[in-house]
Amino acid sequence: MDQEEEWRDLFEKFDRNHDGILTKSDLKSLISESELSGELDPELSEMLLNKSKKSKRGSLTLDEFMGCVKSDVRPKRRESVQVETFSGSPESMGSSGNGCGKLSKMAAWAVLPMAERDSYLHSYRVCSPPPIVVIIFSLTQVAAFIYHGTVLGGLTASGPVPYESSLIFVMEKRPEVWRYVTYMMLHSGYYHIIFNLVFQITLGVLLEMVHGCLRVAAVFLAGVLFGSFMHSIFVAERCQYLLGSSGGVYALVTAHIANLIINWAEMEFRWGRLAILSVFIVTNVGYAIYMHFAAVTTVVAVANFAHMGGGLGGLLAGLFVLYNLKILYWEKILKIIAAVTFGIFIIFSIIWNIVGSPIAVCSGKCC
Predict the structure, then answer these.
(1) Could you check whether the bond before residue 129 is cis, i.e. omega within 30 degrees of 0?
(2) Nearest by Cα to 52 from 64, 40, 44, 63
(3) pTM higher than 0.85, yes or no?
(4) Is residue 80 flagged as an active site residue?
(5) 18 part of the active site
(6) Does residue 258 carry a pLDDT above 70?
(7) Is 59 a residue whose pLDDT tops 90?
(8) Secondary structure letter of residue 170 according to DSSP
(9) 150 burial level (CB within 10 Å; 0-12, 13-18, 19+)
(10) In sequence order, what E strands does the chain have?
(11) What is the pLDDT of residues 300-315, one digit of tens each?
């Protein structure tokens, strides 16, 4: 079979109505599957799309299609055609390819609706750009943990706690504004850091591979900042240190909810996804409220309100920072509401921390 016949067969395969015309939907399906299998390169795909846009019908006839592919003199096709679709589980999607390919397929399944996965996988087939932000944060936290363990005398399940570190957050040192963020670099024991790293890397890498390093960095740091702000507002009277990246981790959890909300119409299994994420959030919020009103005070405490703050920051930032695949009118309104709420909370928290009463020397810690 010569190349011209192969092109005709490809056209007929996606001509759903068998009328010699590729509709806009037909053309998108052809491009998506053919780019993934290597039959079309991005330049030729763009040429076909531009040709269809110039048509009043928004479609392509067989002659128009053949004119485009014949005018492209570069190598276009491979002798064998294999089209892969991704509609099953992440395990079945990652059954072939190298490690990066399997990871990108997992990210596509976890974050993207089915209609967008093929084009994403084609553009991300060489892991460029790599998901570096979450990895950098994680490596920095491990380095800080090992350093303080060496200096303070050994690593244990619950220590050491670097109370004297210039990175830890404590209300009496609130003029040192970097502490509102840098506390995320410290952890109290290997249980604490391992738990955070597992969730941080699992959730963050998948999100970063789709939405990019800058957006995920913004979401993560928003969660960290909201965590220290919420802690300073609700837990100041307990006089506790704050350390750990849990605010950022909870931000990544709620960022997945934000991603689901802003792509709700396109996402399959949306109610199941929402239920799984909501159970995690509701359980932790309920526990935080109980611990607060029960007035349980211990030397080693869980920073429940920092977790809640991190989740709130990740949700709000995610709604207006993450990619929205198809922007609907109500989603535009939601983005504005999220951005305004985000700004109001930041301004309120800054004022609260400026005018708040000084705190006595602290001894407890939260993580």
Answers:
(1) yes
(2) 64
(3) no
(4) no
(5) no
(6) yes
(7) no
(8) -
(9) exposed
(10) 21-22, 60-61, 240-242, 300-301, 364-366
(11) 567 788 998 999 999 9
Q: Which of 119, 228, 246, 349 is catalytic?
A: 246
The token pair at 311 is 């989740």
Angle, alpha carbons 24-28-31 (nearest 5°): 135
DSSP state of 357: P
Q: Greater confidence, 267 or 197?
A: 197
pLDDT tens for 196-220 read 999 999 999 999 988 989 999 999 9
Of 69-73, 154-158, 357-361, the poorest mean pLDDT is in 357-361
For the record, the structure tokens of 75 come out as 């190598």
DSSP code of 360? P
SS3 assignment, position 252: helix
Catalytic residue among 307, 349, 357, 363: 307
Q: Are 181 and 242 in contact (CB under 8 A)?
A: no
Alpha helices in 88-243 (DSSP H): 90-93, 99-111, 114-123, 132-152, 179-182, 190-211, 213-234
Rounded CA separation 208/214 (Å): 8
Q: Do 208 and 257 touch, CB atoms closer than 8 A?
A: no
Q: Which helix (H) or strand (E) holds 168?
A: none
In angstroms, the CA 10 to CA 56 distance is: 23
The pLDDT value recorded for residue 36 is 54
End-to-end CA distance of the chain: 66
Long-range contacts, 19-24 (Cβ 8 Å, 24+): 20/61, 20/62, 21/57, 21/59, 21/60, 21/61, 21/62, 22/52, 22/59, 22/60, 22/61, 22/65, 23/58, 23/59, 24/52, 24/58, 24/59
